[in-house]
Amino acid sequence: MTDPAPASPPVLVLDGARATIRLNRPKHLNRLQPEDLEALLELFDRLEADPAIRVLVLTGTGRAFSAGYDLGSIAERAASSPEQQTAGSAFEVVANRLEDLAMPTICRLNGGVYGGSTDLALACDFRIGVDTAEMFMPAARLGLHYYTSGIKRYVARLGADNARKLFLTAQRIDAQEMLRIGYLTSVVPFEALDEEVDRLAGILAGNAPVAMRGMKRAINEFSRGQLDEAAADQRARDSMHSAEIKEGIAAFAEKRAPKF
Fold this sequence. Notes:
48% of the residues lie in helices and 17% in strands. It contains twelve helices and ten strands.
């Protein structure tokens, strides 16, 4: 069986208000290289600068979402500048940037998710996975102390007990356990994956973008214990006089879908 397309850095597809970024190294389970991380940052900047994009879907090519960051690259970067380079620091920048994107994000988990890519998926707002998915965080087996913001994200989103289980035992878990601990938003058969992703993406693309952007920021800040209450309160007050709320109320009264 041949790959559907040559391996490449992440591929961007635009479809109306929706953007899809597809990791594209299927022969190696979409294992991320340094140039892939650079490409992702450039794509994030491009999408966030485009007001027409309301939702981002992140997925992989082939039978896995991603095998994480190339371990050889981590070792090479650490050896080249040990006083400055911490293992995974380049990956950390990408995961944090993804979490902080203004638009809502969906991870379309088309298969297994391993190593650092478990944090990349966790940085998305929603994760829809196939029922054959599995996840594996091998840091303890590799002698790797994971980067701090990734551990914080695990604890904030999954709870300390689940973070302990995943990091300290380095055991694989299946899709149903991923759903139970809150790693997955929903689990579907592979043939229903696109339908479920499309449904959620359509809902998010149809909601008020400014209100969602502000609430996402507040949720992220609150989960980190860093909520700027004054700024969040100001956004709430501003929303009461916005074009969005006028359209939302009018649409509700007229029993139609709002046009934001």
